[in-house]
Queue: 2 jobs
Job 1
Amino acid sequence: MRERTILLVEDEEYLRENLSEILELHGYKVLAVPSGEVAMETARKRSFNVVLTDLKLPGIGGIEVIQSIKNINPDTACIILTGFGSIESAVDAMRAGAFTYLKKPFEKSELLVTIEKAFEVHSLKEENSKLKNDLKKNHTSAIIGTSSEIQRVRDLIEKVADTDSTVLILGESGTGKELVARALHYGSSRSNKPFVPINCGAIPEDLLESELFGHEKGAFTGAIATKVGRFEAADGGTVLLDEIGDMSPGLQVKILRVLQEKEFERVGGVNPIKVDVRIVAATNQDLEKAVEEKRFRKDLFYRLNVIPVNLPPLRQRHEDIRVLLDHFIENISKRRKKSIKGVTPEAIKIFESYDWPGNIRELENLVERLMVLKDADSLINHKDLPDKIKKPGTEFKIGEVEMPNDGIDFNAVVDDFEKNLILNALKQVNGVKKKAAEYLNINRTTLIEKMKRKGIRDSLGPADSLD
Ligand SMILES: Nc1ncnc2c1ncn2[C@@H]1O[C@H](COP(=O)(O)OP(=O)(O)OP(=O)(O)O)[C@@H](O)[C@H]1O
Ligand SMILES: [Mg+2]
């Protein structure tokens, strides 16, 4: 078991020795000092689980001792010893960070119970700090990806998380904007305060103002009680203004004021309310264009755009697809308590060549759907994948027909078009005619017939007999 350490600060020698003895007899490791000065010097050199200090000391008093020890190590549990009639100072001591006080004279049993409680408080605090630290350390590890683009995003988050700078997160739908906003919050010293996401696009305009700023009782019909808005609820924490591009012009003015002055009024209220919130905004719109088109206030844009974080679409970082795939399979297996073996290389290729217009959310949803449908411990293979992702989009698009003024040769153009269709279909299925026919939804014999007529050689694929 770990040593249970106590720093005892007491100027009366008799009491100091007496208390030390009792505590040591009960297995605590006690260091007893006669003054606040010595206590502070000792606390700078080593830490203690619990501090038991007299309130009235000749030099530096007990309250100051507690304050400075808490500064050095906030997890220390402090108890103050007060003389007769000094209850008010005991209250001050509690404000300074003592968790309780003992009034002299006290019984031995009272002392021991209080000390035991102090150790409980200390270990809870320690555990809490550890969890918070883990959260902080891991705040960017939830953002998966090995591409240089995503690495750059993680680095930027590490740098700006624990500042109060406004961050504007830009990216297509499903690229992880909210995930980044959470990483910013949990990587900051605001992490034990609320993270409040507000979807500016989803709340009806007439409700948005009272939603954000709250309202006073009777401010409008239906306002039957005073309501605290999201900004107030987020005090000390972070507000994510999501879909900021969809915000009405009127509200843009009000948000600008919160950003500039850190204050606002509740709807129907007259007293300004001060809040301490960090603002993070996100949008999938091109805000600069919105500014040009006068849909979005320029001054608000500049206020928000202090630190822009650009999230590239998944199609620009194909190398992340595979790691994300593994990540989601692992996560979903845990959540659904159903594991699958993995994904066949052929299926991975298809995943990697699809464009993912819905980005990571689309990938995540598909993996979830596939895992629900598959039997436990099976492999996801290319046949399981929906046609939509199997068919490449524009890569094989057949060119447009030119229409010159002096007319075209219909038969030649159609012939050419058909030839291109067949060639591309063959290319797509590695020259396997049976598959090409399926792809084009025509008979295999029709395909072979057409190939002969158009002089398409068989050199693309395996021998006919193997088809
Ligand atoms: N890099 C990533 N690593 C792991 N999971 C991710 C990553 N990016 C996004 N996700 C996951 O994808 C889903 C969509 O992400 P998120 O909601 O943050 O996107 P968004 O950009 O806010 O989308 P929208 O514009 O549609 O609101 C979430 O479940 C999120 O956890
Ligand atoms: Mg979002």
Job 2
Amino acid sequence: MNKYINQLLQMQDLEIALREHRSLKGAAEEETCAELRKNIGGLKKILPPEVSVIYERISKKYDIFVCPMVNSACTSCFMKIPVGVTNSVMSTSNCISCPTCGRFLYYDEGHFARPSDEFHQYKGVARFSSQELMLPHMKAKSKGDVIETIGQQCAKAGFVLDGGLFVKALLSRESLITTAVGSGMAFPHARDIRACGLTLAVGTVKPGIKENGDSLSIFFVSAVPMQTSIFYIELISKLANYFSKSENRKKMLDCTQPEQMWKILVQIGK
Ligand SMILES: [Zn+2]
């Protein structure tokens, strides 16, 4: 992949992380936000001027300013891309923008494992999760164990293509900044991995796993394709809000069977 596209993807990821952080935490997290802003600024400085000009314009207009081209179409505005432009995107020598919406494009034909028509036949939380992705009372000793087990289960259930790569991406995101949000909850997630769409798995651990003075007991693990990033932020805000109440956390932690956890999730999704 073009090295500047890679850099733009990192910037997009950090800007979304900044938004996520703001949606979940209060002013106490100013230090983390400042660090994220510093990293974005550092990457911005090393963009070539011709890319920088487009970035400044397009990133003000859209939250997602870099997206994959699939079947010769832009995955953000869904418009067909002319053959000449398609070839340029595939040759990866320059940063190419979508002729319709202006977003930067990159080539990834294997981006979707499952056709999107299939995705749309489900409703509510079943669009991005299933009972198979509910893991009550996991036997895990560390956050890494939890991520490994849940990540592999997502692949086994057919939601992500490669469990190993998914786990690696989750751990790498986690090493950047913890996704714990207080009250024993964490939201490990990985963007831009090969998944059939947004994927959410939930695992509980009793007793919780110690981290920075908190005891992590409910893990919401997600694969977040770029085009679902904003929906993902809305989803985690909803979950964090619901489970900020200790009686709701207790209900989830008391579940011993996947179907009990699934019932709670379906209820929240309504
Ligand atoms: Zn477009």
